[in-house]
Design a protein that fits this description.
Structural class: alpha+beta
Strand content: 15-25%
Distance between the termini: 87 Å
Low-confidence stretches: 5-19, 547-552
Oligomer: single chain
Number of strands: 20
Length: 552
């Protein structure tokens, strides 16, 4: 070999050898338990420090209890950042940590049930750089604060783990791999795995908790005489009674304008004022449409500069003058506010402690986003629509809403939440009975007419039920403070626009079938809340209606 070629070969060999080395020195693996179980996941019920772990602490089987304790220790032969370095050798440590973490896969009886690429923010950066062990609780009777518990909730409640772990004996297996989000998801080999035998006890549910609840008189609705698939509803009631759907308080179905199903759970009843959180945002949309119909607003295309002198507020920009009511209703105003990002200056949690929410909002900086084009969930913007309404309608928003919306619908018992200035907060928190939320939904199904009186214009409802973000891959669509959602049963799809609130609360108005569904729930801040409500609709309520249609 010529000398120059030999030099190139030697340089290339050592260069690529260097690329495969660790990017950082991980901690030394000296603990005998860690050495013995390297590459393994072990299960245990106690929070035991690594130096105190013994073989006898590790479980091969367990009687599964949802309110009990279950955690894992994972033992690796390297740190996470070094695993990620193997996937992208040219990236810096910071780049690796911003784009990568562990991938968890949950198997039940050999079948993959759920796979999650753990959010890159989960876990401390120093641990990811140096540590070669990982301890996380999955279940904690002491409510230990950990991303691991939320990971378990997503597997168990939101992605069918609870359906796989039926009464009886099962094998739960967990695998961990490193992943990097480049232009695609890159995953490495399995770096730790383990399994445990779980015995899931059966539950004895009294028959009266499973039976359909008869519709009592004096509901304010005509009662439907149509049939519903009682077996499907009984199966649903059983799962709610078994707490396999959690914190559900009410289910109402209206079909053809008549009350078909009315059920309450967990101590709730017909007269309970349900706290549906952001479901109340959709009422801002309705009240804006009513104010336009009445001439108190010219249109939803009016700009903020028509209602506020914005120059005295912080972060003034001419773009702020041109924010429209429509962009607030569609959550695309361009304000630097995103409730899904805790670092966003306009996150709703930054607003609530302030003395003046409107000042907080109008002080916010603007992003470079084009108004009306980029969607992000922005509660503060809805509060601003309420303030605009309060300024423009006679006698203020509270009296106007009662006179123009609630009284015509026959809604007399409700409670607002209020801003620090004692104005109705359209951020959410409006409480009323489940049957009254159904009235609101049926108003939209009736194209804005209630008892022969036009409350909302048909044109406004059409605008409200339009998807303004057809190119957004992250969700199915958004209108004027209504979410678009498509439910699928068999080979049929059912489009709906829905009010949606923390805890799994829903008012669902289907566009092509004569059905309105209300679900009230209190699974507040739980990662499975919305998924379980949507599963109830898709796997139980719609099939029960579908079956009744086929039998007619």
């Amino acid at each position: 070999m010529k000398p120059i070629l030999l030099l190139i070969f030697i340089f290339s060999f050592y260069f690529y050898q260097g690329q495969s080395k660790n990017i950082i020195d991980a901690e030394k693996i000296e603990n005998p338990i860690q050495k013995k179980y390297s590459g393994k996941i072990v299960f245990l019920t106690q929070n035991t420090a690594l130096e105190n772990l013994k073989d006898s602490d590790f479980l091969s089987s367990l009687v599964f209890q949802e309110n009990g304790d279950l955690g894992i220790h994972a033992f690796f032969d390297n740190s996470l950042v070094n695993y990620l370095h193997q996937l992208e050798p040219s990236w810096t440590i910071d780049e690796l940590l911003k784009k990568g973490n562990y991938q968890f896969s949950f198997y039940v009886d050999g079948k993959l049930i759920y796979k999650e690429n753990l959010n890159t923010g989960a876990g401390a950066s120093d641990q990811k750089k140096f540590k070669t062990t990982l301890r996380i609780p999955l279940l904690s009777s002491k409510n230990e604060d950990s991303w691991g518990r939320y990971l378990w909730m997503r597997f168990y409640m939101a992605h069918n783990g609870i359906d796989a772990l039926t009464a009886g004996n099962h094998i739960l297996k967990i695998e961990i791999k490193p992943y990097l989000n480049t232009s695609t998801i890159k995953t490495g080999s399995v770096v730790a795995e383990g399994q445990i035998n779980l015995t899931v006890p059966s539950q004895n549910i009294p028959a009266q908790q499973i039976a359909l609840q008869p519709i009592q008189s004096n509901s304010g609705w005509k009662v439907s005489q149509e049939k519903i698939n009682t077996e499907t509803i009984r199966n649903l009631n059983k799962k709610i009674a078994e707490n396999r759907f959690k914190n559900i308080t009410g289910i109402v179905i209206i079909k053809e304008g008549k009350l078909l199903l009315e059920e309450y759970f967990n101590g709730s009843g017909r007269d309970s004022l349900q706290d549906t959180r952001s479901v109340g945002k959709s009422f801002s949309s309705a009240l804006t449409g009513i104010a336009i119909k009445d001439g108190y607003l010219k249109s939803e295309n009016q700009n903020l500069k028509e209602f506020y002198d914005l120059k005295p507020f912080k972060n003034y920009a001419s773009q702020k003058d041109n924010v429209t009511i429509k962009s607030l209703l569609t959550m695309s105003s361009g304000f630097d506010g995103n409730d899904e990002n805790y670092e966003s200056p306009g996150n709703e949690e930054n607003m609530y402690p302030t003395e003046n929410w409107i000042k907080f909002i109008l002080d916010l900086p603007m992003t470079e986003n084009i108004i009306g084009k980029n969607w992000s969930y922005f509660t503060a913007g809805v509060v601003l629509t309420g303030d605009i309404l309060d300024k423009k309608v006679p006698q203020g928003l509270e009296k106007y809403a009662d006179k123009k919306l609630f009284q015509p619908l026959g809604i007399t018992n409700y409670k607002w939440q209020f801003t620090p200035q004692q104005k109705p907060s359209l951020a959410g928190g409006l409480r009323m009975k489940a049957l009254d939320f159904a009235r609101f939904g049926q108003l939209y199904k009736n194209n804005g007419v209630w008892n022969g009186k036009t409350i909302l214009s048909k044109d406004w409802i059409k605008k409200s039920f339009t998807n303004y973000f057809t190119d957004n891959p992250d969700f199915e669509g958004y209108g004027y403070l209504f979410w678009r959602k498509v439910y699928t049963v068999g080979n049929k799809s059912y489009e709906a626009f829905q009010s949606s609130g923390n805890g799994g609360n829903k008012i669902i108005i289907f566009t092509e079938i004569p059905v309105v569904i209300v679900i009230t729930a209190q699974a507040y801040n739980k990662p499975y809340a919305h998924q379980q409500s949507e599963k109830i609709v898709q796997d139980y309520l719609l099939p029960a209606l579908k079956m009744s249609n086929e039998n007619q």
